[in-house]
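Researcher: Here's my situation. A collaborator sent me these components and asked whether they could plausibly form a single complex. I don't have experimental data yet, so a predicted model of the whole assembly would be a useful starting point for our discussion.
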Amino acid sequence: MSLSLDMFGDRWSLLIIRDMMVRSNKTFKEFLASGEGIATNILADRLRRLKAAGILMAEVEATDGRKVNYRLTEKGIDLAPVLLDLLLWGAKHEDSGAPCAVMAEMAKNRDWVLAETRRRWEERDPTPILPKFGPG
Amino acid sequence: MSLSLDMFGDRWSLLIIRDMMVRSNKTFKEFLASGEGIATNILADRLRRLKAAGILMAEVEATDGRKVNYRLTEKGIDLAPVLLDLLLWGAKHEDSGAPCAVMAEMAKNRDWVLAETRRRWEERDPTPILPKFGPG
DNA sequence: AGAAATACTTGCACATTGCAAGTTTGATTT
DNA sequence: AAATCAAACTTGCAATGTGCAAGTATTTCT
């Protein structure tokens, strides 16, 4: 756990991973526009560190050599349970602005949400997971 | 989630909570002796912030007015799923030194481990959770 | 060839952290 | 009762990390 916190014991790393996981953010610009207000140098540094740790990988887009697409690795997508629990905790104990019913659904269908998150990652499906709930 | 990371987006807060949860650490001195090497000023600051956030509470020991006993609140013990997932992730993807079999057991009995963690908190049972596994 | 877009890097002020030492309050010993 | 010890902090300061504004490199568009 101490090792995990060497990597995630900062303000931004987990937010970046969350943006990749639930918003399908892929590019530097998208991360900047995520609204949390990360500085460009910090973003560059975190992407570098997460890449070095094998949590994400980077590749330049085939059709546009300017763009770099970041993508979670298996190690990265395995953080989904941590992020989901953190989200549920925040929704329960902090004023998150998220509707209670939605959060209750997510807590109830925890395993399905995790499976669906992984499926979207595997199939590169960029559909956001938040508005859709339940197996049916 | 951004709100959660305002609180836990640092190197030490979650480690302190982990030490309270799995090692039943209660006093300033015990936290210092946990082996992670936190500085005294940082420890004091984090305890203050976690207390202000309602994640733990402090009370001076009745029989020894020097000692302050820290204890997780309901809000604090609710972080157990996050910590467990982080532990399992670290065990899977980083060299944690923890035996694989033990971690596999924890992953399998996730719900039981969480229930047992909460029971120990409610009953103030200081038995460490790590060497004991399975419902039977 | 020139302008625009994307992904960074750099310089610098400011905040946070870590270490060592000191302070405060309460218990224990003589 | 005085001196000593113990636990929980606080303080000072150097080093490290962060955030903002600006600049650079490479690639694409016109």
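Model: Some features of this prediction you could bring to your collaborator: Chain A touches chain B through 33 residues (CB under 8 Å). Chain A has a mean pLDDT of 93.
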